[in-house]
Amino acid sequence: MNEENPYLRSLVIIANIIGFIYNVPQVVLTIRTKSAKDLSSLFLMMRILSALLWIIYTTIVWSPDVLISWIITGGSSGILFYYKIVYSDHNICGELCFWRKNKPLELKDNVHDETQTP
Fold it and tell me: How far apart (Å, rounded) are the C-alpha atoms in residues 69 and 93?
């Protein structure tokens, strides 16, 4: 980033502040309710992966202002994903285990009922 241009620097600072502000309500709500059931696991995992790749890139090209933004995004996504896993009410992998959703556990018929006579 061109550190000489104060307008670009101001633009990045404003973007970082907005990025922080838009992440706070969802993180606070998730922590208070201890529920992330309305958040997609796939969305959160892609957001974390994207943030990690951006963090690597901005570290290599050394753009600390952009790096701060992606650390905020990655950190908030990590918190949300943690709550998604820990407080999931159906299974640990959330909706990523789509094959397990809406399928009741099937019991085998080889169990002998003692109330019936042979």
Answer: 28
